[in-house]
């Protein structure tokens, strides 16, 4: 598939759709999936898409997985569902920040409909993150660090306390394999890997930790190795 050059305030990136076509593609999907007769403003979506591509241009250069870069710059394929899910997440958040709550909600719901990925548009996404077939993954109002990778059926959510909810705080470099879970007032350090099914509830994981089931191990060389497969220049 051919890629087109998009120049953003953060530098050059490549996309299988030019910016106006990419914005129109998302806008028409929103109107098709939610046909309530309320128009989705083309200029509003295109402006948010321009800001979203700038985020991608900055962040995806640090992704080591194939298909995320082209000639050293970020690359977006609208038919690569992992990438498109990430684009919709960023797009929804950019719309939300601009006060376009109704359109942001449509973009958020579109991501749920297409990818079964649930992260509300008010939640701040990391600048550098990767979704790997994220079907069934739910992310609540946690504080997310950079270099976050989420696989399928992961949960990051709140735990009730004093009539409210405590949410996790994640450091930089967190890799969550399938069905891993972080709940409540949990503090996750930098460079942490959750194995499949790894679970922390109202707990703490130190820097360099490996979570296997409910056990936390430190000093495991596999942590750096696994993170280096996802991100460039993070794990030493």
Question: If you had to describe this structure to a student in words, what would you say it looks like?
Answer:
The protein has helices at 19-33, 42-59, 81-97, 101-115, 222-228; strands spanning 4-8, 11-15, 69-70, 73-76, 118-119, 129-131, 138-139, 148-150, 155-157, 159-161, 164-166, 169-170, 174-176, 181-183, 187-188, 192-194, 199-201, 204-205, 210-212, 215-217. The chain is of the alpha/beta class. The protein has two domains: 1-115, no CATH class; 126-236, Hexapeptide repeat proteins (UDP N-Acetylglucosamine Acyltransferase, domain 1). The strands form five sheets. It has a six-stranded mixed sheet with strand order 6-8-13-16-19-20. Strands 5-7-9-14-17 form a five-stranded parallel sheet. Strands 1-2-4-3 form a four-stranded mixed sheet. Strand 1 and strand 2 form a beta hairpin. The longest helix is centred in the first third of the chain and has 18 residues, at 42-59. The chain is globular. The mean pLDDT is 96.
The gross shape turns out to be globular
**Class derived from helix and strand content:** alpha/beta
Low-confidence stretches: none
Query: Main β-sheet: number of strands, strand sense, barrel status?
Result: 6 strands, mixed
Quote the average pLDDT. 96
Total strands: the figure is 20
Proportion of residues in helical segments: 25-40%
Fraction of residues in β-strands: 25-35%
The strand order across the widest sheet is: 6-8-13-16-19-20
How many helical elements?
A: 5
| Order of helix and strand elements from N to C terminus | EEHHEEHHEEEEEEEEEEEEEEEEH
What is the first-to-last residue Cα distance? 34 Å
